[in-house]
């Protein structure tokens, strides 16, 4: 099976049910938000877990390969197992895909926590998987901070 490796053209390549989905280069506010979240998460991350930025795919099915903006998983994480947390940073070109399609995929493939962050409105939505699907755990807007213990204790300061 051929894998989709990160590219240098600034685009993200994902396969959903055998169909190639290409996301073009994202605006600077998107990149700034990913980096800000990554720094805060890495500083609180315990040594047995890792924070990955678009570099580790999640392959929940033979014809599906997803590359979330950020994910947290065990260091020995097999790419076919659900990560502990997936975070998507919204942008005008990915908003609907992240809110609707990816939420459904992460839910279907048993990702315990899914967050999406809107850097334009500085709003974080945290969803937790329950037996009936995702439940909203919190919606937080800057200048508020978000404190959680899942998948590890961390307090995030929301920035653009």
Termini distance? 38 Å
The assigned structural class equals: alpha+beta
State the total count of DSSP E strands. 12
Helix content: 10-25%
Q: Hey, roughly how much beta strand do the residues contain?
A: 35-45%
Describe it for me?
The protein has a six-stranded mixed beta sheet, sandwiched between helices. The protein has helices at 28-44, 95-108; strands spanning 12-16, 19-23, 49-52, 58-61, 64-66, 70-74, 85-89, 113-118, 123-130, 133-141, 145-148, 154-157. By secondary structure, it is α+β, with helices and mostly antiparallel strands.
Short key terms for the protein model shown above:
single chain; 160 residues; alpha+beta; 6-stranded mixed β-sheet; two-stranded antiparallel sheet; 2 helices; 12 strands
Summarize it.
This protein has helices at 28-44, 95-108, and strands at residues 12-16, 19-23, 49-52, 58-61, 64-66, 70-74, 85-89, 113-118, 123-130, 133-141, 145-148, 154-157. With 160 residues, it is α+β, with helices and mostly antiparallel strands. A hairpin with a 2-residue loop joins strand 9 (123-130) and strand 10 (133-141).
Secondary structure elements and their pairing?
Layout: E1 12-16, E2 19-23, H1 28-44, E3 49-52, E4 58-61, E5 64-66, E6 70-74, E7 85-89, H2 95-108, E8 113-118, E9 123-130, E10 133-141, E11 145-148, E12 154-157
Parallel strand pairs: 7-8
Antiparallel strand pairs: 1-2, 3-6, 4-5, 6-7, 8-9, 9-10, 11-12
